[in-house]
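Cross-check.
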Amino acid sequence: MTPDQLRETLNRFTQQKIVVVGDVMLDHFLWGKVSRISPEAPVPVVEITRESYFPGGAANVARNLRALGAAARIIGVLGKDEAGANLRNALAEQGIPTAGLIVDSTRPTTLKTRIVAHSQQVVRFDRESNGATSSSVQEQLFQNFSGEIAGANAVIFEDYAKGLFTQPLLGRMLAESRKAGLVTAADPNPRRVLDYQEITAITPNRPEAFAAAGVPYAEAIDDVLADEALQNVGSILLKKWKPQNLLVTLGEHGMCLFRPGKKPHYIPTVAQEVFDVSGAGDTVIAALTLALSTGVDPAEAAEISNHAAGVVVGKVGTATCSPAELVDSFARSGC
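Predicted model, tokenized:
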């Protein structure tokens, strides 16, 4: 992709409306420094200097879309609690409408608290419920979804196995999306693999791909295209889900794009430094889907998502990538 083509694509990003459906969360960061070990136990004492809140999970996908210039809409479930109110505020600050979020007083808002000292995560603790949402909440989610996809270009399904998705609900939403001619993308969860039949794009990481394929996990080798275990998993998932594009993310080994009837396409990582991989998968699916919604070739869309991920892993905390940072990343790699 030439610089002019990239800038033209980025300009089209601002014309796209993307609906994100999935498990929303609030990412809570406590930032501090360590200067001593506790006398009570062999653990560091973190002196907290500040705290911050960011949209997490499916809400972070919407945040990444917004950072890239798209109009983002979010469908999900909150608890009737302070974390839910904080998440609404965090989304509003990003310019993301929250009318599609449903309040369910029977469950808490998923809250992930991370303590970070000297740019390193010390510990994370979660407050959440993984139980399935009720049938009435499921129906309300579908009604909100049906309203939001009017005028949309794409839909992203983000399953973190927190109870929002059931197979019937996902099936109805996929059918509605196909009927509307929308690009569809999903980030699957290995703890509860759903059926994503005939989706436009799906973005598992290596462990998720092996789990979905029902194949024992095998460690990566440096030559991705010679990685027989990975290539076998790619073939299995193309037959299982029948996606147009299967993008397996491989961490420091980059990405591999599988498509029906085509040879696998390898994309080496462009990450310069890796400080924090939190939310990198959210960035990948946001950038990939957004690029596909503009009509970009899938291999080029995967390249864009790879550069976006390379930007965010170089930051601490749940981060996003801006269009300017994308342009700089492509320039550094000589594209």
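The radius of gyration is 20 Å. The chain has a mean pLDDT of 93. Passed to J.P. for a second look.
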